[in-house]
Design brief:
Elements lengths: L1 H19 L5 E2 L5 E8 L5 E8 L4 E8 L2 E9 L5 E2 L1 E14 L5 E6 L2 E6 L4 E14 L8 H4 L4 E15 L1
Antiparallel strand pairs: 1-6, 2-3, 2-11, 3-4, 4-5, 5-7, 7-8, 7-9, 8-10, 9-10, 10-11
């Protein structure tokens, strides 16, 4: 009986150790293209973007929004990229847009964020980072006094939320 208990205990412990050594997520061969719906980011206020993974950790993005256009590059921090897990990234993105009240501006920012890659070709991303914003013209009614103060540069915080479909 003593040998039986020792054998069962040994099998149980060895199976638990082997389960603990497996990674929690599954690596995958990435889908190289994605189409996204964005809030802020390269698609300005609300827009769409196309992203292409050109290396395993580097992607380029072009966005079109309601009032502007943008472009950017993203570097995924770690490889391999996992399905069912969060992948951190950094990058540089810029957007040029108009405002409803008038005025034009350019925003360049350094995003720090996370993307969650699902098993069914979807991805969800959120980033935020410091930005450099150049206002080329004032909002609203332009007076000579206001126009003389432009272009004007400001440091601020900018971000992006995106829902992507990878193909």
């Amino acid at each position: 009986m003593k040998k039986f208990i020792c054998t069962v205990l040994l099998i149980t412990l060895s199976s638990n150790i082997s389960l603990a050594e497996k990674p929690p997520c599954v690596t995958f061969t990435p889908r190289y293209n994605s189409i996204s719906i964005n809030a802020l980011g390269t698609g300005t206020y609300v827009g769409f973007s196309y992203e292409r993974l050109i290396r395993q950790r580097l992607s380029l993005e072009v966005g079109f929004g309601i009032l502007g256009v943008g472009a950017g590059a993203t570097i995924y921090m770690f490889k391999p990229i996992y399905l069912g897990g969060f992948v951190p990234y950094i990058g540089v993105k810029t957007t040029f847009n108009s405002r409803l009240s008038g005025g034009e501006r350019n925003i360049t920012y350094l995003p720090i964020g996370l993307t969650y890659f699902t098993r069914n070709r979807m991805a969800f991303g959120l980033d935020v980072g410091p930005s450099y914003q150049t206002n080329y013209s004032p909002n609203g009614k332009v007076t000579a006094e206001h126009a003389s103060k432009f272009p004007k540069a400001v440091f601020s915080i900018y971000g992006n939320f995106k829902i992507s479909y990878r193909f």
